[in-house]
Amino acid sequence: MTDKIKVGDYLIVQRQKYTKLQKFTNLNTIVNLGKDQVELRLAENHPYLTTFHLVPKQERGKRLYTLDALSTPSEIRNLKELLIKESGNDNRNIIDDRQSQTLSTEEILKLREECESSSEVIGKLVENSKSFATKTEYSQEKYLKRKEKKYFEYITIRRPSVRLLADIYWRLDPEKVLGVRFDTLSQIISYSGVCSVGNYLLYESGTNGLLPAAMMNSIGAETGGKLVHMHPGNVAQKQALLAMDFPTEQQARCVSVNIYSVLRHYYQDKEAETGEKNSELKEVNEMADVTEEPAIAEQEEGINGTNKRKREETDEGTVATEAKQVKLDKQKQTWELDNEAAANIMEEKFDSLVIVAKEHPYSILKALLPFVKSSRPVVIFSTSREILTECYVDMKTEASVTYLRVTSNWMRQYQILPNRTHPDVTMSGSSGYLLTGYTIGN
């Protein structure tokens, strides 16, 4: 991790209050901000949090811009101080007949090409507005903010953080993170007690890597903490985890495995050690038959099937091919190595369990609870209160977890301005529910 922007990084491109996650894949990478296209080539080797001026490129029919780094952000002008000179007492005499602006659309487009900055364009619009001077100061500020948003020609490039990623995913589509809003994410991290020491177990089924990224961020670099990240699919969703650009040693302490595959691996090893059939393995297979994707089974059987075909080919081949086959038989695939690493951590047991699932979490909880040490936190998230109520009743009956609580976060943002303080008009009503408790010795 460096303090400078480099090719291969994930970047947060900010234009006023709008933020966007973009991977700086190569020097030809272009980020789309509305109708504007911005080349990122000249951002390379500049420090994060640098503010850039958008310089238009003379290409017909395209709003294409290149970047010019500002030496100081103070170069951005304050439009309120520049343009608001006199104001009206109220707006009662203003008629919205769309005739207040004397400039035509063609003249405004020409202004954008001729003026060097957005403040000049907005200044010309204000000069040619018949009603601007008669509006109240508050209405004038709203007008300037609206025009500034349209013509603003500065962006800031920031390093991804858990807060920024959570806000971006939530704004784009809450379902991309299973409805986990940032305030709920902070509660999950707080209740689970994730810190720099210990082993932690996470099951999530589709948050774009936001949950493992947040937990690894709390574990920190160059620490002893480990995370086993279980998921139901063939490949874990890791965009947020990759965007955080953790050091290699920190990434190595996050092991992502398919839940059914690693549980089979663990219980099969137990059977091999004891020589006795394991009832838990049967339960895992039954659970996997209902929910597991077919490709998982194919993945686990892939080596045997491949070896069978290769043995048939070696019957007609040479001795050299047979020697090569023996070498291939000994090689293990990445998912097998991950299963082994996760199983070793499972032997040590975990210091907390977090479940954020699309599915009903109770069967997953039953399968993973034996791997959690006693007196350790358990956190389950769901967008449905009824599902967590069912889990609450079942866990009370089994008496495996104590101090059970079902909670819900309700966060509302406020605009804080002189004489204009009020809650935001639009907001999300709920960010799901949490069931929390502590394990009893097992």
UniProtKB/TrEMBL annotation:
What are the UniProt keywords, alphabetically? Nucleus, tRNA processing
The record's subcellular location field reads: Nucleus
Q: Name one GO cellular component term.
A: nucleus
Q: A single GO BP annotation from the record?
A: tRNA methylation
Q: Is Nucleus found in the keyword set?
A: yes
Q: Which residues cross the membrane?
A: none
Q: Which InterPro entries match?
A: SAM-dependent_MTases_sf, TRM6
Asked if the record carries the keyword Nucleus, the reply is: yes
Q: How does it assemble?
A: Heterotetramer.
Family membership noted in the UniProt record: Belongs to the TRM6/GCD10 family.
Question: What does the function comment of this entry state?
Answer: Substrate-binding subunit of tRNA (adenine-N1-)-methyltransferase, which catalyzes the formation of N1-methyladenine at position 58 (m1A58) in initiator methionyl-tRNA.
The protein's name: tRNA (adenine(58)-N(1))-methyltransferase non-catalytic subunit TRM6
Organism whose genome encodes this protein? Anopheles minimus
What taxonomic lineage is listed for the species of origin? Eukaryota, Metazoa, Ecdysozoa, Arthropoda, Hexapoda
